[in-house]
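EI: anyone free to look at a 457-residue chain?
SC: sure, send it
EI:
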Amino acid sequence: MTLHGHKIGFGLPPILRSATADLLTRHGPLLLDWVTCYGSPLNLVWPDALQKNLAALKGVLTERRVGHAVYYGVKVNKSLGLMRAALSAGAGLDVSSLCELRDARRLGAEGVRLVATGPAKTSAFHKELIDCSALISVDSPEELEDLIDGLPADAGPQPILLRLRPRDQSKSRFGMPGDAVVHCLARLTAENRLRFDGLHFHLSGYRWETRVAALSEAADLITKARRMGFSPRMIDIGGGLPIQYVDQVKYRAHLAAQAPEDYRTGKIPDSFYPYGGTLSPADWLHRLLEAEMSQGQSVAGYLAREGLTLAMEPGRALTDQAAITVFRISRVKALGPDSHVIFVEGSSFSACETWFASEFLVDPILVPVTRPAAQSPPIRAYLAGHSCLDEDVISNRWLTFPIAPQAGDLLVYANTGGYQMDLLENEFHRHPMPARLCVIDDAEGRATLVPDTIGEV
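SC: here you go
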């Protein structure tokens, strides 16, 4: 059941794919059975959704005849099922920790399908990356020296990228400016155990225009590298492809109408993810490839002319519509004649946007399980977790429920696969970690749960 939002007409119901909508509207008892069995919160993952998202991006790249390497940014979600789905659909994996690397290897990923990003790789991480010849994005001259120090004397050419920090990202701690890239290239001329494969950058924000500017800067460095005798083959643009959580018209209307009193804190957060953006990931990528870099040449045209592969590490864009998080209500407490707090079994660590001084601007869906819907009036409430922390709030935004929720009812947050459901999860108060299971169709087409483990997914 969708909500009215605090102001009638300005709610933010989630965009749902048909499989999720069908589960919520037609199979509420099944969802309740799953929560009864596995506990609250319950994270449900659809690996096939990732494969559909990947196919959409690859379709754009193929249409524009752009050589490409798509690596799923596994940091976005802990699901092994999503990792396996990416591999089986032809994607590589972007690993940012030793544990992510080991999971990828246990799933059968060869080094040629792995790229390692991040600025603080340990020597142990370097060693295992070298052992499987995974592509390493080198963040700094200091990391380059550490990598060289750890190379075996008889090491074959270890592929690396150099991570560029574009000029307009001068305050970022990630990557290195162009002159440092040139310094690293000079260092590599005397080191035959490393192979310079190209450049990498990853930008904050979600505008394709900033990527075009960074590509232009990278192009100049590619030219310099070739003059120095290198044969770069790749430019990696990282991630940051936006997704659409809610209808863009409703989202704009909500932002225009919201006021401080719409939040229990009396303050509108300073920033939000663009939940109701105008571009899908495929649209965004199409805009990028069609954009002009210089002298009337498009990005796609430049890459083709220079024989360069376009690499990327989408995370959120590949987990779009791939997961939901289900909370069971434990208590509804009146705070006044027109305000309530709804406590759920679980915490904001499993729906974590408030911990970043922001808000997940997607309405939860109420699934009543305790009585006929017509027997209770609407109420206004915010959502809180079960911990003793005053900051444990899932939604600071006042929500108007068309019927009064009751203990035992379910609240479902849609599209939580990207940096939401498990980014901050923990065992605070000794509560167990939330269960995460994969949803697949059985032989009769019925939704079935399987463990999200190496041996099952």
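EI: The chain has a mean pLDDT of 93.
SC: 👍
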